[in-house]
Design a protein that fits this description.
Layout: E1 6-9, H1 14-19, H2 21-31, E2 35-38, H3 46-56, E3 59-64, H4 67-70, H5 74-84, E4 88-91, H6 106-122, E5 126-130, E6 138-139, E7 142-143, H7 144-150, E8 158-160, H8 163-168, H9 173-179, E9 186-189, E10 191-193, E11 220-222, H10 231-240, E12 245-248, H11 259-273
Parallel strand pairs: 1-2, 1-12, 2-3, 3-4, 4-5, 5-8, 9-12
Antiparallel strand pairs: 6-7, 10-11
Helix pairs in contact: 2-3, 3-5, 5-6, 9-10
């Protein structure tokens, strides 16, 4: 078995992408990344983005696209990412109080998944779901994420395990990836330090988490290899689970590094251990 390619979720370097999409892609390729996962097209057309990926030599493997963006124009949105060359679209977020099992909108959420999945299939693409930690809240002994996957077929919905949020949610990341062997083509490699916090999601949008209790380590997202994750075990689990690729994601930067510096630290660490 060959080594898994390494991609990066472009939300990790969104400031650089917004300033210079083409130049950032070339820089990521030079760092050692093989592929990119999109978080929007930053006012570029599908054709322009495809050309930029081709020029940089990067695989446009996937895209995070919310159902709120997809559902008003399913054919157009899915078609655009298909035109870029993406194999996967991942739902990046669901509202715990609206969309997930036990919530009043769960049936609608499932129906939307089936609609988008069917459209993806027309283009030879697959739909995935990207978790956070709140999907691991249990209902009658089963966590909401497992219920979601039980209520959909592997053909309708694959999993993109975010291993940071899986750990925050109380799971062993490597074991959880293996739980969905054959259904987890892309695995998010994300590192962190600190304790679960009510404000930790502020970091996703560039905020800061502060804790008043000196015994509590503030939650902080870190470059891969600079936190508490057993990165190699997660990558090996991804291999054994039949994943196609691992994808670095760091929603917010730390350690005094900017987005590009953080991205390089992550890929350098992975290339050094794997």
């Amino acid at each position: 078995m060959g080594k898994l390619p390494i991609g990066i979720q472009l939300y990790s370097v969104r400031d650089a992408v917004e300033a210079d999409f083409a130049g950032t892609l070339k820089e990521l390729k030079k760092m050692g990344y093989d592929a990119v996962e999109f978080a929007g097209l930053f006012n570029h057309t599908a054709e322009q983005v495809k050309a930029m990926c081709d020029e940089a030599g990067l695989i446009p493997i996937s895209a995070h696209v919310g159902l709120g963006v997809i559902m008003p124009n399913v054919e157009k949105v899915v078609g655009d990412y298909a035109a870029i060359g993406c194999k996967y679209i991942a739902i990046p977020w669901a509202a715990a109080d609206k969309d997930l099992p036990g919530a009043p909108g769960y049936d609608t959420f499932l129906a939307n998944i089936k609609t988008v999945s069917a459209e993806c299939a027309k283009h030879g693409m697959k739909l995935l779901y990207h978790n956070h930690d709140f999907e691991f809240v249990k209902i009658d002994g089963k966590n909401k994420l497992d219920i979601l996957y039980a209520d959909t077929t592997p053909e309708e919905l694959g999993t993109q395990v975010d291993t940071c949020w899986a750990k925050v949610g109380g799971e062993d990341p490597a074991k959880y990836v293996m739980k969905y062997a054959g259904r987890a083509p892309l695995v998010h490699i994300k590192d962190f330090v600190g304790s679960k916090s009510a404000k930790m999601y502020d970091l996703i949008d560039g905020g800061v988490v502060e804790e008043n209790n000196e015994e509590v380590v503030p939650f902080e997202l870190r470059p891969v290899g600079y936190g508490i994750q057993d990165v190699l075990s997660i990558i090996k689990a991804a291999e054994n689970a039949g994943a196609e690729m691992v994808i670095v994601e760091q929603d917010n930067w730390s350690l005094g590094r900017n987005s590009i510096e953080s991205a390089k630290l992550s890929v350098d660490y992975i290339r050094n251990i794997y």
